[in-house]
C-alpha cells in the first residue's frame, strides 16, 4: 500500500511588531511535495485552525518544483487543508512541517500539535520539519517527561541566518530555544543544504534543505 504523508502547515500570515507578511515558504512545501509525489505517496494537508493557509516566497515560482506545486494539485489541496483536530493522524506513516516565518507565530505552544507530534513519534512513524518548521518540536514532551529534542541531533534555521533575515520580527531565536531543550544542534554555513536524521526524527536547516529532508524521510519510510 502507498505510504501516507500529512503535511501540517501554519495559518499565520503576519509576524512581529511591524506585521511582516509571511506564510509557508513556497520551496519548503513544494520541494518535499514533489519528492513525496515522485514516491507515489498519498499527500494530505492539515492546518492548525482549518482556515486557508498562506504562502510566502511566490517570487520563487519559476523554480520547476515550485511552479508544479502552484499550478498542479499541491497548492489546490493545501488551500483545502483540514483542521488538524479533525484528522486521525494515527493513519499516517509520516508528518512533515514546512517552514517560513509563519510557524513561529502559531506553532511554539499549540497543545494539539504537540500531542500529534508526540503520538506520531512514539509510535515510530516519521516526523520531519525544515527551517522554522522545527519550532513545532519545541515544547513537545514525550510520555517519560523528556523533551522530544533532548539529546537529538537537530537542524533548523540558525541564529546566524536569522540575524540577516528576520531577527526583528521573530519572538525568539529558534536555534537557541531548541538548544535550551537539549537539542544537539548542527549548523552548516548560512543557506547551505543541511538535513539530518536521528532515528525517526528528520530536520533541516533552511529552504535549500527541504528536498534533503524529504529524501531522508522517504529513506526511513522505505527501509
From TrEMBL:
This is Type 1 glutamine amidotransferase domain-containing protein. InterPro entries: Class_I_gatase-like, DJ-1/PfpI, Prot/Nucl_acid_deglycase. Pfam families: DJ-1_PfpI (PF01965). Keywords: Glutamine amidotransferase, Lyase, Stress response. Residues 28-217 form the DJ-1/PfpI domain. GO terms for biological process: methylglyoxal catabolic process to D-lactate via S-lactoyl-glutathione. GO terms for molecular function: glyoxalase III activity. Belongs to the peptidase C56 family. HSP31-like subfamily. The keyword Lyase applies. GO terms for cellular component: cytoplasm.
